[in-house]
Design goal:
The protein is mostly beta strands. It contains 2 helices and 45 strands. The protein has a 13-stranded parallel beta sheet with strand order 3-4-7-10-13-17-23-27-31-35-39-42-45, with helices on one face. Strands 5-8-11-14-18-24-28-32-36-40-43 form an 11-stranded parallel beta sheet, with no helix packed on it. It has an 11-stranded parallel beta sheet with strand order 6-9-12-16-20-26-30-34-38-41-44. Strand 21 and strand 22 form a beta hairpin. The protein starts with 6 loop residues before the first strand and ends in a 6-residue tail after the last strand.
């Protein structure tokens, strides 16, 4: 401690510092030194040890699909070149910017699409998002959606395991993969996929044998949110004309966890099974959304094979299926609240226009504050539960709900539990 300051100037007079005063000054001075040292040490720690979050933006300037030779952002860069470059970004967010109102058409066919999952070729076929170190974000700037059209050469996107992807204000169309899985997007075992204010439309998943899964999307072991978006006019040869949701079951088992909010799933066709959504062994939450005008040979709007499903403040209407027009529920735990199921049709005489939980269903279904009306079928317009004595019997509980005024058929069939305040 420096002791050269032995006097205080006080209005022109001097006086000697007492021992107690000196002790106080010494304490304050040392405290300031300690604080300064700590601050400098903290700044040095941030510089040396805390990684800087970085990222890069790739501005796409071409709407065609030339042989990739590098992305010169803002000067000469195709969408495929931008995605290849984004896959090499080491941290932060790799942002790919398209122009709203423009259509970006893929044209480079992949001679060996069967190798896409083992040895992906970024230069041909579908666009492949592989980066596991940085978030990859694809967005439109300006007005309107930017359209990515696969033009039938393959699916539009494969989003690989371990990735974190954001898609905003993009239309995904024209996908038609050879193996009939995931016409618009095939995504598996990734960390997170966010689709916002976008459209997945006009994609096909039908293989040479006539089968196919997930006309709009194949979702396998994925945490995904779809917000403010539309999935429409897609077709699958078998399950999930709009979306097929399942779990990833390779070296590890990962259930999908999907949230659909403020979105529309409409006019999708699952030729031989399920129209709008097919979900199994996964969690699905639908909030303030519309499932309408979909069709499938078994379930029109939604087919639930297993898993946990919540439908909240949503509308399921105008769907057509042979057994379950609105919903075909074979298993799982299903909670429907504050929703409307109306105007759906089961074409099979023994089906149910609204909700079908057949003889082999072991689902537990709770329906609260919900209206089921104006549905039609040959026998049961509203809700059907499997016959007594069947190998498995669903449990259906109603609370504060209305099941009434079906267009044709009875309101209910089978044993259904009322927890009070229902109208039928």
């Amino acid at each position: 401690m420096i002791r050269s300051v032995a006097w205080l100037i006080n209005v022109g007079n001097t006086r000697r510092i007492t021992g107690s005063t000196w002790s106080t000054i010494n304490s304050i001075f040392m405290k300031k030194i300690n604080q300064s040292f700590f601050l400098q040490f903290f700044v040095l720690f941030l510089i040396l040890f805390v990684p800087v979050v970085s990222g890069q933006t790739f501005e796409v300037t071409r709407t065609d699909d030339p042989t990739p030779d590098g992305c010169s952002s803002g000067t000469d860069c195709s969408l495929r070149e931008a995605i290849i470059a984004a896959n090499d970004v080491g941290s932060g967010t790799a942002t790919i910017q398209l122009v709203g109102g423009q259509t970006y058409t893929l044209s480079i066919e992949n001679p060996s699409p069967e190798n896409d999952f083992d040895s992906p070729d970024e230069t041909a076929g579908s666009l492949k998002i592989l980066n596991t170190d940085a978030i990859v974000r694809i967005e439109a700037t300006g007005s309107g959606l930017a359209t990515i059209d696969a033009d039938g050469i393959d699916r539009v996107f494969i989003i690989y395991n371990g990735t974190d992807v954001e898609i905003n204000e993009i239309e995904i169309t024209g996908g038609d993969p050879e193996n009939g899985q995931g016409g618009g997007i095939f995504v598996f075992n990734n960390i997170d996929l966010e689709i916002t204010n976008s459209s997945i439309t006009g994609n096909t998943a039908i293989n040479s044998g006539g089968f196919g899964y997930g006309g709009g999307m194949w979702v396998e072991g994925v945490t995904m949110s779809i917000t403010g978006s539309t999935i429409s006019n897609n077709e699958a040869g078998f399950q999930g004309g709009g979306i097929r949701i399942t779990r990833y079951n390779e070296e590890v088992t990962v259930n999908s966890d999907v949230t659909i909010e403020n979105s529309t799933i409409s006019n999708n066709d699952g030729d031989d099974w399920s129209g709008g959504i097919h979900t199994e062994r996964s969690d699905l939450t639908i909030i303030e959304s519309t499932i309408s005008q979909n069709q499938g040979s078994i379930g029109g709007g939604i087919r639930i094979s297993s898993g946990n499903v919540t439908i909240d403040r949503s509308t399921i209407d105008g769907n057509i299926g042979s057994l379950g027009g609105g919903l075909d529920i074979d298993g799982g735990e299903v909670f429907i609240i504050n929703s409307t199921i109306s105007g759906n049709e089961a074409t099979n005489f023994n089906g149910a226009g609204g909700i079908y939980a057949g003889n082999f269903s072991d689902a537990v279904i709770d329906i609260v504050n919900t209206t089921i009306t104006n549905n039609k079928s040959g026998t049961i317009g509203g809700v059907i539960r499997g016959m007594t004595g069947a190998s498995a019997q669903a449990v259906i509980n109603f609370t504060n709900s209305i099941v009434a005024n079906q267009d044709s058929g009875d309101d209910c069939s089978g044993t259904i539990t009322s927890n009070g305040n229902n109208l039928s």
